[in-house]
Amino acid sequence: MTVPPSTFQLIYGVGNFAQNTKCKLEKIVKYNIANLWKLVAIERLFAIVGILLCMGCSGIREKPLAEIMASVKRPTTPEEILKNIKIAIDNDLMTRSEFYTEENVQHFFGGKKIKISRENVLDLAADSYEYDYLGAADGNGSYLSPLEISLNSWQKDKKNYERLDLISLKRGLFPDLPRCVEIFGPGSEHFDVLQPHENADPQTSRFGNESIRYLRYGAAHGQLLLRFFGDGSLYQMSFRENAND
Hints:
Blueprint: H1 7-34, H2 36-58, H3 65-71, H4 78-90, H5 102-109, E1 113-118, E2 124-129, E3 147-156, E4 159-168, H6 177-184, E5 190-194, E6 211-217, E7 222-228, E8 234-240
Antiparallel strand pairs: 1-2, 2-3, 3-4, 4-8, 5-6, 6-7, 7-8
């Protein structure tokens, strides 16, 4: 005949079970704390591997300059110039010192004259001008280039930064806003439509005097600003990497 446990035995049994459970939990907690650094290290390792795999799959890995130059033809139209500018931004060309040669800059941006400035190995600049084959600048006869492009790279806090500017002095030379969005849109995070810029032309187009700004654009996650004449054609393009990030 089985004797039912007394109240004392039940309480003792429950207490003993709770004590054993507590000891096991303490051991588990102590083990996890002791091995937490291993878990964090493994997690970080997997995160880094994942990033590298994504970079490899999406083609973000830096391409050799020779490969990029071979894939790009010298532009002969304003739209081809914009497409080459996008390639330059996407591949961080302005931060590569080997890119700053007259041959490379002329091949990429199409100007007849190139000026290279090298203050040192880290501070570089180039200007591309004399685009008379695209016509004359507005209201200045035939002696002023209708287009100028400047780019430069500098270092701050051991990091390279870049900038590229395009200015058009001829209305109707470059595409309008919708076409520029088609050219620069792929690969951008998003853009803002800004208020019409100062000293605006008489507006003769739906998109005249508009300005748009892409945020976190290109490989360097800089800002790309596009401004348009009153007739809707591109007036200014400016790409700047934020040195305060």
